[in-house]
Each structure stands twice: as C-alpha cells, then as structure tokens.
Amino acid sequence: MSTEVDVVIVGAGAAGLAAAIELQSTNLKFLVLEARNRIGGRVCTDEETFTRAKVDLGASWIHYYGPENVLYDYYVSFNCGKKQPRHSGYRICFDYDGEYFSSETKFHARSICAKLYQHIELFTCKNKNKEDQSIEQVIQTEYERLVPNGPIKRLVNLMLSGEEEYEGSNFENLSAKYYGLEDGSSCDKWVSCGYENLLKFIVKKHNLSIQLNTFVTHINTIDSDRIAIKTSNDSSIIYCRRVIITIPLGCLKRETILFEPPLPDWKRNAINQMGMGLMNKLIVQFSTSFWDSDMCSFLHACNKQRGRFRHTICSHAPENILILFVTGNFARELEALTDSEILEEIMKFLRQIFPTQSISEPVKYKFTRWGQDTLAYGSYSNIAVHASPDTMKQLAKETSDGHVHWAGEHANANDGTENWSFGCVHSAFQSGQRAAKTVRSQLCSS
Predict the structure, then answer these.
(1) pLDDT at 182
(2) Which candidate, 190, 194, 198, 238, places its Cα nearest to that of 215?
(3) 2-42+193-275+384-443 maps to which CATH number?
(4) pTM
C-alpha cells in the first residue's frame, strides 16, 4: 500500500509549519510528517513539571521583534503581549563569590573588551580573501597582553562569554572572519505565553494537518519525478513530486535520513562546515525565593571556567523558579552527568554566590539535553571556523534537479534585506516560506 501526494514536508517545526501555510494557497496535495509526538521541534513548552509555570525548554525569545518579523502578527493576535511577563526588574552582575564588581573594575573590563572586539573586526576587514581563524586564535595574544589577573580578568571573561552564549559555542569553534555577520541591534521579546503555544496557535489558525510520530528514515530520488519516502513506523511508501526537508542541522550531520542516491558532495560539505551550537536550560523551582524579588536575572563571573553558569533568569513568586543557561563546552560536560550530579553542581554554585542565604533543596527541577536529543543533536546553528554565508546558501540550495528543497534556521540564505537572520525561530519560518514558494512556482506555473 502506498500514498501519493504532490509535496511532503519533513518536520513540523517553524520551517515546516511555514511551508505548509504557504502551500495552503495552492491546489497541491501535501503531507507534513513529524517524528515527535508534538509540533515545534526545538520549540518546546513544559506546562506540567513546574507548579503555576509554563517553561520553555528550547527557544524563549522572538529575536528581532517588530512589525517586520514574520511572527509579529501571530504574537499580537495571540494576545501574548497582554499575558503576565515571567520576569521584570533589574539585573545584577556577581563575582565568583557573590561580591559586586567595583566601578573601576567595570570600566577597565569594558575598555579591554572593546579593544579585543576591535581586534576581531580588524582581522575581519583585513582577511576577507584569506584563511579563516577561530575567534580564540585571533584574540589570544591580545588577551594575554591586555588582561591582568584578578577581578578584571573574571569580568572580561564574563563579558566575552556573552558572545559565546548567544552563539551556543566557544570561541575556539567560531569564525573570526565572519564575526558580526548579523550586525545590528536586536529587540528580543520573551514569549511569556510559551513559545510552543504560539506555534500551536498558528497551527490552529491555519487548520494545519500534521502527521505526528512519523520518523522519516529513507528518501529515494533515483526517479526524481516520483520521490519515494519511507518511515520507521510504516511499511508503506509515500510518493511525491517534491519534498521539503526541515530537520535540524544536527540531524543532517548525524545522517538520520538515508538518501538514495547520496547527497552531492557540495551539500554534504556545507552540512559538515556549518556550526551547531548547544544551549541547555537547568530549571530549578524552590518553595520560596531566596533572591531579591526585584531581580529579573543575574550574571556570574567564574574563577574556574569562562562562561560557567554565566546567566540565570529569575522568576518571581509564586513560581520561585531559576533558569540557568549553559552553553558550548560546559553544556556538553554537564550532559555527561546524571541529574543528581548536575543538581549538586547547581546548589554549590548558588550557595557560593548567595553565601548569607539558607538555601534549601529545590522542590522540582528539569534539565534539558539538546545535544543528546536524537531529533535535534544540538540547539541552533552558527558560523563555525571555515564556514561562511555561502555555506548557508549551499544548505538552502535545492538538490535532485530542484526536486528536493531545504529549509530550517540553518538554511535561511541571506536575501540582502534588513530583516534577514539565521539561527532563530523566525529565521526557520522565513526559510520554510521561501522553499514552499519555490515549490509552488515549479508545480503551479501556468
């Protein structure tokens, strides 16, 4: 038994949903196949674990928020902006022992960081046609020359690790040549209603039909006019004229789908070149808040490892939740530990920076492990050493003579507009729209 459709969309994350919405304006018959038992992919909202709280385990913010963002109208329509924000108030910066940094230390640290980033920008300008290097390689000599030991060094490391947190990778893995590719101010909107709920609203608004629990294992394009797709839970074959693949870059790197014939070398090279960052959330809920109720978040300068427990968001009572963001190498180290071992590290950290507080064990906790998630293998893409904007173009480029299309936050090729971005939920949405429009022009041309 087999199924015949015009288009198969693999994945029901933001890219897959956008592609489906775009195809609704046609007479094409299409299927959306999703391996998970829910939509959203790396957009996932937990509404069950924590008392009185919706907690996003993946994406949390709409980056570049504003009327030009493809998700803006949905957000406004869903009344997200009228819901109670999770956190508001001031942000504090702690040294490793919970002490505050002096104004003089802050001044010197900012000055040093400015010089280091200027050094990266100078490298970027002078080496456009030369071999790439990692940010770590580029700044190492200047860092050693400019940064003294002590509190200034710890604060400089904290400031530098902000870039590593945003990219989900350490400087040793990030391209210096394409540093600041998305240069420009970004207004970020915390999705207080739960990001997955926003995507569910979009699905309901457009009455999309999604086939869940359907893991695509094989895509055969030997006959590119009749692509054959196999799934793990069905012996039947789905045939289609076009396929839009929206699975995460981490899964493409792990080759979770077998392509016959194999993907061309240029596509495989692009998949291997592009960086895949890791950001995990360690969410702990307490019976009461031991932190200042007016504090919305705090930053921490570690004396052992740059970026270790650097950023924590505080949720007011009655939720009494702390969300610790961990990224890159440190996140991978923690993924290798058990939950109880991770919790022990968290409690040591909290008791160190709040030494005067009596901190009891949390009543509930949950730790994400996106690097071990077999339907993600990471959090979001970045420009790794030797990757480039051309890498994203190759990731977005069709294969099989234009019959196989590619979308996702990693495959949103630069269109030259001010609204372009990559690595974000709305970037994935844009890429899904683009891929579906191309399919529509191919199959619906008069």
Answers:
(1) 67
(2) 238
(3) 3.50.50.60
(4) 0.95
